[in-house]
Amino acid sequence: MNATIRMNVVATIMRVILGVIFTMHGLDKLQMGLGNTAGWFESIGLPGTLAYVVALIELLGGIAMIVGLLTRFVSIGYAAIMIGAIVTVKLPGGLIGPNGYELDLALLALAIYFIFAEHIGYGVDQLLFRKKSTQE
Questions:
Q1: Where are the membrane-spanning stretches (predicted)?
Q2: Cα within 13 Å of Cα(51), Cβ side
Q3: 76 SS3 class
């Protein structure tokens, strides 16, 4: 197996895991009720409508990430969400602990990887946007 194929396999695994995590977070917001989530956002000083945007990016973006569709664009949304979560909620809890931001930081790192990476794995993006000279 050549290096490009190995990198695409690893990137696919990372992308699917990232997509599953965000999909589950989006589903969690739906199950709690978007109105409740909006109320919580307002309680920490954020606009309640932002809860709907975040839930949409997490849920639909998660599904898109799993199938490898618009990976870079979804990753920009993920990075914004993670930066927002760290700065507005998690930072006072410290890096490690029950309210720590270590997971948020790891998810941010993965999102940044997919914004800039040469290899984003196998998926719809590769089928739609593959360069003609790269036939793998």
A1: 7-27, 50-69, 76-93, 105-124
A2: 21
A3: helix
**134 domain-assigned:** no
Q: Decide if 127 is inside a domain.
A: no
User: Within 10 Å of residue 27's Cβ, how many Cβ atoms?
Assistant: 14
pTM: 0.90
Q: Is residue 24 part of a domain?
A: yes
Task: Determine the structural domain holding residue 82 and report its residue range.
Answer: 3-118
C-alpha torsion 109→111→112→118, nearest 10 = 120
12-29 pLDDT, tens digit each? 999 999 999 999 999 999
Distances (CA, A) of 25 to 18, 34, 68, 105, 129: 11, 12, 18, 16, 29
